[in-house]
Known about the structure:
Oligomer: single chain
Largest sheet: 5 strands, antiparallel
Structural class: alpha+beta
Strand order of the largest sheet: 7-6-5-4-8
Amino acid sequence: MSKVTTEVEQLVTPIVESLNLELVEIEFVKEGREWFLRVYVDTPEGSIDIEQCAQVSELLSEKLDEVDPIEQNYFLEVSSPGAERPLKKEADFVKAVNQFVHIKSYEPINGMKEFEGYLESYTDEGAELAVKIKTRKIKVLIPKDKIAKARLAIDFSAER
Length: 160
């Protein structure tokens, strides 16, 4: 995490918790000449609405104006994490069991670094996926410490 995202996390966490929401992710990125502070929030059930996002945006904007932790001019965006929400915390992975996910690993496992499949379990050992490779399905265990990035994904094959 960058210094900015760490500071923003400290400001937004009490706001999000007071509204019974979850902080999913914070990004501070430059696109072209513009800076964007993106805050992704959701409900525990995964069904946030635009009014809740607007409420977080308003409260966070007031706090950011008060504390002023960011030197650059930027646009604040508060939104849901979307259909392909990132999986970062252990609770995210546990909630994603039986769902279709995309996982990148730091190093090859079975000769691959990217996997898409149904998350069958998430234990102390790692994430076990049912992955389809060509015409056969295999189970792959990706150790926790080898997971570089993970997110929910959309299964366009409509096969399970």
